[in-house]
Amino acid sequence: MSALATDTAGTAPREEARPGLLERLGDRLNPLVVKEVRQGLRSRVFWVSFGMMLLSCFILSMVAYVTTLQGALSTKGQGFFFGFYVCLAMVHFFIIPYSAYRSLAREREDETWVLLILTGLGPRRILRGKVASFLVQAALYASAVGPFLLFSYYLNGIDLPTILLVLVLGASWLVFLTVVAVCAATLADGRIGRALVHLVLLGSLGMAVMYGLIAAFFLSEQGYRSVAREEGFLIATGVCLWAMLTYGWLLFETAAARLSLATENYTWGPRLALTLQMVLSSAVLLGTWLWDAPRVSAASGLCVLGCVHLAVTGIFVATDVDGQARALRARTRPWSLLRPGAVRGFRLVVLLMLGWAGLCLGFFFMSASGSGSDQAHLLGVLAAPAYSLFYLALPLVVGRLPQSDRLASPAVVRVLFFSLSGLAGALLPLLAVLFDQRVDDPLFNLLNPFLGVDNFGDYNHSLDEPKMNMELLACVWLVAVLTAFAADRALVERERRAHAAS
Question: Can you tell me the distance from the alpha carbon of 177 to that of 182, in angstroms, rounded to the nearest whole number?
Answer without folding.
Answer: 9
